[in-house]
């Protein structure tokens, strides 16, 4: 038992995808989940029921005693948004590496070439990052980047503005300029289920303003982007995320990742982390 | 362990980078457009991405993740996210001794005075993986070491063996200059089949 | 021509890639294969009772096998055909049960005997490596000769995506050179898991 790790909420299934009971892993331990009529349940290996929350189209559970409610995304409730269940992809990397990659924009020209970025538009301008102590979340704001095709709904290249939020150690929410509705933000999330400390199941979910694309097109777009990341994530060494400075070399463009690592260390979240002593 | 063959010259033409390894040391082996071979640690100092997934651009090796470029000495000289920045000299990739000779790319993980293995005028044929450790392979031929093993055969085959994992090695095969390479290739496939036939 | 397409499908990518290399326009219809299982929906089953992708429609013609679709796309392009193609088209289809299955298992959790799928994938890679090495002894880079044909395009996706299923491509130098030659073809398009060749763009 490690309260700093166990007392968080973790995504374990897409609600629309739960039919027969099934087994999965959470933090290296077997759990089972299913649905009785309307309500979903999760049990640990001894058959003890674990707490559940159904939110953002996903089923969440915790092996510990969460001392606060699962975070909310109030903006996602505004009318006119389409909620997109993207499904899951398994990746052989630390759950923390998956989140950190999601917080990074400097890779866009090389990994998401001609979609989220393109040479020679590689420069990352200074942006604001802070750990919001009152909510205990990491936030990066005023992040701007030139994108050839920022979303399925984008007609051509635009400078996109982003805000990143880390409301839980294995989750991130991205607020992004919305091509058809200037002034509003599209919401793209990455919910990561730590299967083990070096293997995760990633559940992206989106709440978008897009009246033109089919649901399948929006799902495809996000799967395309995430699968481009997967081939990176499976090839970073070490597989775990180094929390102590020294092993890797950040620059100004990596301020979000630096804050994320510092915050993980502060709250004692070491699952999937590589510490100097390790 | 001094010189170890990590690949054949004709398999790594100018502008190419390949993943390789010597036991637990993972390597990015690349050839610059001007034809110089390099063997580096296969890990980008920035965020740990394998450099062997990267790309050769000019006389540099670039990382696929954020495009950082490393010059032939292994020093980072360009960071695309900060095009105006001159990266500090401290950002560099560990490099190893790497020489191409006789069509074979040789790497030494330590400084060494040992001369490169003699190849007796043979020419390279092909590389192939074998599910067997390098020491076991040497033992099979009764050889003292696995750096090169001369095999009594019709084609005067010489095997340069690269230790990969406990159960896996690569053999880089050379043969008499006038040998039929296709025949040698088949001979090697048969040899592998024999070696991998697990004894009961 | 309409391609009912799934962005992560190696078989659909064969078709997208072939069309791109030929410069043949395709209208893409995204099908939510995962997680939506839309390829098993009544509309899709009406088009293809097997419930698989890709599906290509060209007027009244409906084709549901990627090998047939490659032949259809190149019907007027003899330069993309060779008498040796059939053997490699069959080899390519068999990869769905080895490397392709290992990939679906590792990425989206398909049921599989994963060790068996990977072992069959390694055996296939060894066969391909041996053949491509022989080709290189004769100065040829592609499967059937000095120019690419539908044989190469059919084999390329599941081979190049092998690492997605936990099968390493590191020990196959001739396969690597062949993949590089395909990635260098004019009009080449990538798919997730296969990076663009960044070598030539924007030298600094
Ligand atoms: N013979 C087909 C097989 C393609 C295939 O296996 N497609 C997969 C998607 S990558 C599929 O539709 N699978 C669904 C199923 O088998 O139920 C072809 O190559 O065109
Ligand atoms: S990890 Fe290599 S450039 Fe960032």
Could you explain the architecture of this structure?
- The complex is a heterotrimer of chains A (278), B (200) and C (204).
- Chain A is α+β, with helices and mostly antiparallel strands.
- Helices cover 17% and strands 36% of the residues of chain A.
- Chain A has 5 helices and 16 strands.
- In chain A, a hairpin with a 2-residue loop joins strand 5 (52-55) and strand 6.
- With 200 residues, chain B is mostly beta strands.
- Chain B has 2 domains: 3-108, Rieske Iron-sulfur Protein; 123-197, Alpha-Beta Plaits, CATH 3.30.70.
- Chain B has 2 helices and 14 strands; from the N terminus they run βββββββββββαβββα.
- Chain B has helices at 134-140, 181-196, and strands at residues 4-8, 17-22, 25-31, 37-41, 55-57, 60-62, 69-70, 76-78, 95-101, 104-108, 123-130, 149-150, 158-165, 168-175.
- In chain B, the strands form 3 sheets. A 6-stranded antiparallel sheet of chain B has the order 1-10-9-4-3-2, with no helix packed on it.
- Chain C has 2 domains: 2-78, 3-Layer(aba) Sandwich (Glutaredoxin), CATH 3.40.30; 81-183, Glutathione S-transferase Yfyf (Class Pi), Chain A, domain 2.
- Helix content of chain C is 46%, strand content 7%.
- Chain C is built from 8 helices and 4 strands, in the order βαβαββαααααα.
- The model of chain C has no long low-confidence stretch (mean pLDDT 96).
- At the A-C interface, helix 4 of A face helix 5 of C.
- FE2/S2 (inorganic) cluster (FES) binds at residues 44, 46-47, 49, 63, 65-66, 68 of chain B.
- Glutathione binds at residues 9-11, 39, 51-54, 65-66, 93, 96 of chain C.
Task: Give a nutshell description of this structure.
The complex is a heterotrimer of chains A (278), B (200) and C (204). Chain B is mainly beta and 200 residues long. Helices cover 12% and strands 36% of the residues of chain B.
Number of helices of chain C: 8
CATH superfamily of the largest domain in chain A: Naphthalene 1,2-dioxygenase Alpha Subunit, Chain A, domain 1
Q: What portion of residues of chain C belong to β-strands?
A: 5-15%
Q: Give the number of DSSP strands of chain C.
A: 4
Count of structural domains of chain A:
2
Termini of chain A, distance in Å? 19 Å
Q: Report, as a whole number of angstroms, the end-to-end distance of chain C.
A: 41 Å
CATH topology of the largest domain in chain A: Naphthalene 1,2-dioxygenase Alpha Subunit, Chain A, domain 1
Most extensive interface between two protein chains, with residue counts: A-C, 31 and 24 residues
Distinct ligands, ions and cofactors found in the model: glutathione, FE2/S2 (inorganic) cluster
What would you call the quaternary organization?
A: heterotrimer
Spans of at least 5 consecutive residues with low confidence of chain C: none
Whole-number radius of gyration of chain A?
Answer: 18 Å
Global mean pLDDT of chain C: 96
């Amino acid at each position: 038992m490690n309260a700093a790790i166990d007392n968080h909420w973790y995504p374990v299934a897409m609600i629309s995808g739960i039919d027969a009971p099934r087994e999965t892993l959470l933090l290296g331990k077997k759990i089972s989940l299913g649905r009785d009529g309307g309500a979903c349940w999760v049990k640990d290996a001894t058959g003890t029921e674990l707490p559940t929350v159904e939110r953002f189209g996903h089923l969440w559970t915790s092996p510990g005693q969460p001392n606060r409610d699962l975070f909310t995304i109030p903006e996602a409730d505004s009318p006119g948004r389409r909620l997109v269940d993207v499904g899951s992809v398994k990746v052989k990397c630390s759950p923390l590496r998956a989140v950190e990659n999601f917080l990074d924009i400097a890779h866009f020209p090389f990994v998401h070439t001609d979609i989220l970025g393109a040479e020679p538009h590689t420069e990352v301008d200074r942006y604001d990052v802070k750990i919001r102590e009152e909510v205990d979340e990491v936030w990066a704001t005023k992040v701007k980047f030139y994108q050839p095709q920022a979303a399925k709904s984008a007609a051509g290249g635009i400078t996109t503005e982003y805000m990143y939020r880390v409301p839980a150690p294995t989750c991130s929410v991205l607020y992004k300029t919305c091509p058809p509705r200037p002034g509003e933000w599209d919401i793209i999330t990455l919910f990561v289920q730590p299967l083990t400390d070096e293997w995760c199941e990633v559940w992206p979910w989106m709440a978008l303003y897009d009246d033109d694309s089919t649901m399948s097109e929006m799902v495809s777009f996000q799967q395309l982007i995430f699968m481009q990341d997967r081939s990176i994530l499976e090839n970073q060494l070490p597989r775990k995320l180094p929390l102590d400075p020294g092993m890797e070399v950040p620059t100004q463009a990596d301020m979000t990742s630096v804050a994320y690592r510092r915050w993980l260390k502060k709250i004692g979240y070491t699952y999937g982390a590589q510490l100097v002593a390790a | 362990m001094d010189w170890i063959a990590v690949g054949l010259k004709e398999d790594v033409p100018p502008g190419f980078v390949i993943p390789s390894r010597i036991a637990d040391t993972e390597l990015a082996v690349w050839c610059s457009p001007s034809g110089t071979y390099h063997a580096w640690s296969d890990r980008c100092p920035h965020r740990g991405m394998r450099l062997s997934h990267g790309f050769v651009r000019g006389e540099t090796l670039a990382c696929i993740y954020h495009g950082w470029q490393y010059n032939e000495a292994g020093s980072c000289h360009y960071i695309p996210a900060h095009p105006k920045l001159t990266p500090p000299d401290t950002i560099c990739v560990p490099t190893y001794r790497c020489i191409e000779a006789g069509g074979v790319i040789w790497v030494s993980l330590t400084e060494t005075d040992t001369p490169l293995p003699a190849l007796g005028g043979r020419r390279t044929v092909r590389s192939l993986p074998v599910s067997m450790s390098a020491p076991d392979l040497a033992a099979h031929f009764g050889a003292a070491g696995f750096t090169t093993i001369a095999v009594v055969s019709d084609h005067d085959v010489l095997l340069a063996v690269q230790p990969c994992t406990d159960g896996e090695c690569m053999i880089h095969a050379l043969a008499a200059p006038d040998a039929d390479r296709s025949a040698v290739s088949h001979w090697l496939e048969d040899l592998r089949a024999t070696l991998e036939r697990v004894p009961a | 021509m309409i391609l009912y397409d799934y962005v992560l499908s190696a078989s659909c990518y064969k078709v997208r890639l072939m069309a791109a290399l030929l410069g043949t326009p395709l209208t893409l219809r995204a099908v939510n294969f995962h997680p939506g299982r839309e390829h098993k929906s009544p509309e899709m089953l009406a088009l293809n009772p097997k419930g698989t992708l890709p599906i290509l429609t060209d007027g009244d013609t409906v084709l549901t096998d990627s090998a047939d679709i490659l032949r259809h796309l190149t019907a007027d392009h003899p330069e993309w055909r060779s008498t040796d193609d059939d053997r490699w088209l069959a080899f390519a289809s068999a990869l769905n049960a080895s490397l392709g299955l290992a990939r679906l298992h590792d990425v989206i959790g398909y049921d599989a005997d994963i060790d068996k799928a990977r072992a069959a994938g390694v055996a296939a890679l060894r066969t391909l490596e041996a053949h491509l090495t022989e080709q290189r002894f004769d100065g040829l880079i592609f499967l059937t000769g000095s120019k690419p044909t539908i044989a190469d395009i059919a084999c390329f996706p599941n081979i190049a995506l092998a690492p997605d299923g936990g099968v390493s491509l590191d020990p196959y130098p001739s396969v690597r050179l062949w993949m590089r030659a395909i990635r260098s073809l004019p009009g080449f398009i990538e798919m997730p898991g296969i990076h663009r060749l960044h070598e030539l763009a924007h030298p600094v």
